[in-house]
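Hello, quick one for you while I still have it in my head. A protein chain has come my way and I'm curious about its shape. Can you walk me through what the tokens say about the fold? No rush at all, and the record is pasted right below.
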Amino acid sequence: MRIELQNTFVELRGEQNPVAIAVLDALRSNGATVGAVAPVPDILIVSVPLLPVAGYDPAAQLQSASATGEAMFARGSGRVLFLVSAAAGMPMRRHAEFSVAMAGVLATVRTMAMQLGPKVLVNALGVGAIGEPLLAGDAAMLGHASVKRPGSVAEVADTALFFCDPLNSYTTGQMLSVDGGWSAGYGRNF
């Protein structure tokens, strides 16, 4: 996918995992300047853990993203894109605590979208089982994903471009799951 991001400044906050790096590379290859070079970025990428971890507390990261969103609002424009686990929208039974943390991140995405609109668009990518070996998600997700394979970091990065495209000016407060159909509940027996 090609989009026009000349004179667009992008900043990453949070985990520098392979998925987040692929998103930054995709933005850079479309003309964006990546790194903390502007006082307030045009696009803020917020990367939270994509592999289930115990004890993750997103509070400081969410507060930082919210403050940047408010600065974008004061300036009159901006985008915030959260890279989250697909467990934000569909809890994983095996990772209840992690699922709760992700659901809190998604609630913050939607709240920020309400508070900062129409000037700032705030969205999330819900990332499922990505990579071999897994870089995101849980291997058990593959048994319930309709495509029956892990996704690639390129598939996540291409989806991120949709949210960052200047022509996309109406989508906010949404999570788009890049999870091979896992969140659709394919093959679940409950």
User: Anything to note?
Assistant: Residues 89 and 103 are 6 Å apart (CA to CA).
